[in-house]
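Researcher: Can you fold this with magnesium ion in place?
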Amino acid sequence: MSNLVNLSKEELTSFLNSFDNIFCDVDGVLWPRAGSVISGIKETFSKLDNFNKKVRFVTHNNLLGRNNLHKVLNDIVPGLAIDDVITPISIIITFLRTIKFNKEIFFIGHSASKTDLFEAGFKIALSGPEHTEDSLRGVINNLRDNENIGAVVLDFDPNVNYLKLVKAINYLQREDVLFLSASTGTFATIENRIILGGVMFQQIIEDASGRSATNFGKPSDALKRYLFNKYTIDSGSRNLFVGDTLDIDIKFGKLCGFQTLLVGNFKPENANQIVPDFYINNLALLHKII
Ligand SMILES: [Mg+2]
């Protein structure tokens, strides 16, 4: 693995000539988590455009909703197609359309993803009530099956609660109910505060229901299949995956057989570690050296 800023001019040219497509993560690459766009990022993507590199974003960031995220990213990469903003929810929508899904979705997630599903034409079942009588009878009374529900879809939900979890678990007792997950990450530290990711709640539902969700985020086979079908690419090295996490982004890049570029400092720690092909401390540095 090489630090891009330490490559010679010839080595950088050979790196740039080695790929056509860039699949790029968003959070931690274009901006710090919960921050604004890093100065110099726009210049980097403008330079990459000059080199005719086709950029697409593959992100777990469902929080803005796809349309809003597209607006932000289009400012960084002018002319970016909305289809080139790939989120787990957008792949779930494509999947549900492919199988002509027409039942209701029991959705545990935040409002932007709910809007994405709704605007794609899917029916969302009511997830309420938010509170129940403080007794087991109160809980049981809320767990009647709803035959119209054909899928449980999970995403990051800051308002997840006990009733939503047990309802999902009980709907999944019917084997014909699909179990799809856009949730990613167990926990993260943001501004020195620990937050729980959706995967923690997914594990609770999986344990209690005996069902396993199909995951649509990085590093899933469903996402790999989606990219390969959508963009008629192959696993050859003419593709570069860029991201800031080894176990999510670089692992996914390798699953696809792409070249990989880690954004951040890479320090080899053990023999089993995932090793990126290249790394750079900050992607905004790239425009200065190419
Ligand atoms: Mg990231």
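Model: Folded with magnesium ion in place. The first helix runs from residue 9 to 16.
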